[in-house]
Amino acid sequence: MAGRFDPLTRTASRGGRVDVPAPGRGPGQGGGKQRVWVSDGPLDLGLTLGPLRRGPGDPTFRVAPDGAVWKTARTPAGPATLRITGAGSGSGTGTGTGGATATAWGPGADWALDTLPALLGADDDPSAFTARHRLVHASHRRRPGLRLTRTGLVLESLIPTVLEQKVTSDEAYRAWRRLVRQYGEPAPGAAVPEGLHVMPCARTWALIPSWDWHKAGVDAKRSATIVRAARVAARLEEAAAMDLPAAAHRLEAVPGIGPWTSAETLQRSNGAADALTTGDLHLPGIVGYALAGDRDADDAAMLELLAPYAGQRHRAARLILLAGHTPPRRAPRMYRSDIGRI
């Protein structure tokens, strides 16, 4: 729905949210462009943007000591660096009703600021969610600032998700760090934290030689999937504007991309509230244990338990994970292959 524009205050209201283009397109710190966006309800930057971080050493995402969130992106207009803080507060990761202040640098700065509301959950509708279990209700009540981010960028989420296929998180994070630092580029902007990078473009991903995939610990199956995706990147990026079934179909047309990978990608690129991750090693057991005391639940049992949350199953699963009610470990951790050391 189009917003209402007030020429006196120069603010546009969209569903109770206020966008402030003045000084929202004015100069920010260090020569960057700035925008202020005000939410109509609580906003927790840490919970909302946290899924975009791929491990503690992610070279594309950083939380500074002052609480500011730094994020890079390869936008359709070019590389961009975004610094986000809670509006009206010194903390970038806390919960509040002030929304956020963002400063952007680089050729993609305008694109990054234009899509800032979606990144912070403006397209999400938490009111559509109704808790059906006591644990989910308690988790939801404790996290009023949780919003589902929508980056609008498919490859940005798809590539690290493919790296996470059938390996430990540590292995995937190490591969992502190495490849982005080696083939990406330093983040544009002034006073950018040291080591912050923009991920490579699609053509660069497609041209990474086999030995560098190997050094990064990425097997031939995953690297081939990324190369195939990079070669049709323009078609995959179109999925960011599609509904969930069509977007999943578009991604899964690429060999090597299945329901697990498409769901994990579309949760971030499209803010898909119903993109439930199936085929996961741990999630069915966690959901089964939390909702029915069944630590041996499989995908079918998980789908049955989450059926009352149709349309919001990803949000429900996220709230269950945040509740921390997980079954006790009774098996060894997943074996770490680490082919990069062979």
Automatic annotation (TrEMBL):
Keywords: DNA damage, DNA repair. This is DNA-3-methyladenine glycosylase 2 family protein. Residues 1-35, 79-103 are annotated as: Disordered. Residues 87-99 have a biased composition (Gly residues). The keyword DNA-binding does not apply.
